[in-house]
Design brief:
Oligomer: single chain
Number of helices: 3
Largest sheet: 4 strands, antiparallel
Helix content: 55-70%
Shape: rod-shaped
Structural class: alpha+beta
């Protein structure tokens, strides 16, 4: 049995070796054929005209890119100008608003001044009217004291002489009172209070 196994093992090994060598030969043969079959590639030699065309194309591309960049810069400049114009317009509007606010402030100040002057004028007028009223109150003459009523009696002789002075004694009336005549022709008697009481024209002597 051991011999059989060893024979089989040897046989399988020999088969494996044979197959591997056959495969190696095939590979090496195919590679050799391929190497021989392929023609050698010729190196391309560039012509100077081709080089010029390539450089021209590159320059054109560069020019196009520069033009695009210029256009973008112009667009940016235009946008900046527009922004500047807007900012200027905003500044103008702000200035106009400031002017309007200043004008409103001036008007308010004028109104305040007028109100203050009006208040002052009103106060002065009130003060003047009050002063006038107080002046009137002060200048109002006190009510004259009521004269003592004439009782129709004549004063005594001494008071008559004092009051009458140099006036002439004309005579006596019905009641027995002595009647004096003044310098202007008026007739009077001296009552008990020591005052001259003039007679009416009807009752003159």
């Amino acid at each position: 049995m051991k011999r059989i196994f060893s024979l089989l093992f040897m046989f399988s090994l020999s088969l494996a070796v044979l197959t591997s060598t056959a495969q190696d030969e095939k590979k090496s043969g195919s590679k050799g054929k391929a190497k021989t079959e392929k023609p050698e590639k010729k190196e391309k030699v560039e012509k100077p005209s081709d080089k010029k065309q390539k450089t021209d194309k590159k320059e054109k591309v560069v020019d196009k890119k520069e033009k695009v960049v210029d256009k973008k810069e112009k667009v940016v400049d235009k946008k900046e100008k527009v922004v500047d114009k807007k900012e200027k317009a905003v500044d103008k509007k702000e200035k106009v608003v400031d002017k309007k606010e200043k004008a409103v402030d001036k008007k308010e100040k004028v109104v305040d001044k007028k109100e203050k002057t009006d208040k002052v004028d009103k106060k002065e007028k009130v003060d003047k009217t009050e002063k006038k009223a107080t002046d009137k109150d002060n200048t109002i003459k006190p009510a004259p004291k009521p004269k003592p009523q004439d009782d129709g009696k004549e004063a005594d002789q001494s008071t008559r002489k004092k009051v009458a002075g140099a006036d002439k004694q004309v005579g006596k009336d019905e009641k027995g009172r002595t009647i004096f005549e003044g310098s202007r022709g008026g007739q009077y008697y001296i009552n008990s209070n020591g005052n001259k009481t003039y007679l009416k024209a009807e009752k003159k002597l």
